């Protein structure tokens, strides 16, 4: 696995600014050979400029910078899920500077309902493996302002969505093969939700019966 320490906030901002200057190419979803070649050259240029801006840090490869950008996009995607998901809406998290910049570049994609991962689904960032999906699990929403049950359901929704997108892109075989523990947890969560609903209904029923008596 091509792993490296996470980018610092200044490094992330430098990367996003380099991408913003070339966003029309980086976010171009065409699979035409000429466009794909232009995207490859653009990322090579981004890598050269990024490493030149950070001479005192470990040089990053195109694969690593793409993964870092994908991570920022995923954070923006999860923020959107928190705001538009079902149930009681939690207070939207305050956008960090890098998230705000990434969101500004993704405005058109999000407004059109396009998949925020399409940019990378057309050109896989790295080889598929269970570690890639477990890495997503480490990045699930963990906001103390969101009640535990809601946070757990949100976590499962985001994880399942991410896994299905990797599966659809051909990066993993099946969700069942890759994440049986997650699917089991999702089933438990649904069962717990049904129990909570049933318990609440029984309580209301008993109160009504008591009132009628």
Can you describe this structure?
By secondary structure, this protein is mainly alpha-helical. It folds into 2 domains: 125 residues, no CATH class; 87 residues, no CATH class. Helix content is 68%, strand content 0%. Helix 1 packs parallel to helix 5.
Brief characterization of the structure:
With 213 residues, the protein is mainly alpha-helical. Helix content is 68%, strand content 0%.
Overall average residue pLDDT: 65
Query: How far is the N terminus from the C terminus?
Result: 68 Å
Total domain modules: 2
Q: What structural class do the secondary elements suggest?
A: mainly alpha
Number of helices: 10
β-strand percent reads under 5%
The shape is globular
Largest sheet: none
Please name the defining characteristics of this protein.
single chain, 213 residues, mainly alpha, 2 domains, 0% strand
């Amino acid at each position: 696995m091509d792993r490296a320490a996470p980018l610092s906030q200044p490094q992330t901002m430098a990367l996003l600014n380099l991408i913003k200057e070339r966003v029309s190419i980086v976010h171009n979803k065409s699979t035409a050979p000429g466009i794909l070649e232009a995207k490859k050259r653009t990322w090579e240029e981004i890598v050269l400029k990024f490493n030149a801006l950070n001479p005192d840090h470990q040089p990053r490869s195109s694969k690593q910078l793409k993964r870092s950008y994908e991570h920022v996009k995923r954070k923006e995607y999860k923020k959107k899920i928190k705001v538009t998901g079902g149930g009681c809406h939690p207070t939207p998290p305050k956008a960090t500077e890098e998230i705000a910049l990434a969101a500004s570049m993704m405005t058109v994609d999000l407004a059109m309902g396009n998949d925020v991962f399409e940019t990378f689904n057309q050109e896989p960032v790295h080889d598929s493996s269970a570690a890639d999906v477990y890495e997503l699990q480490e990045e699930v929403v963990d906001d103390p302002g969101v009640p535990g049950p809601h946070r757990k359901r949100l976590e499962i929704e985001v994880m399942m969505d991410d896994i299905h997108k990797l599966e659809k892109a051909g990066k993993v075989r099946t969700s069942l093969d890759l994440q049986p523990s997650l699917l089991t947890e999702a089933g438990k969560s649904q069962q717990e939700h049904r129990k909570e609903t049933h318990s609440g209904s029984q309580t209301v029923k008993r109160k009504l019966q008591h009132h009628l008596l």
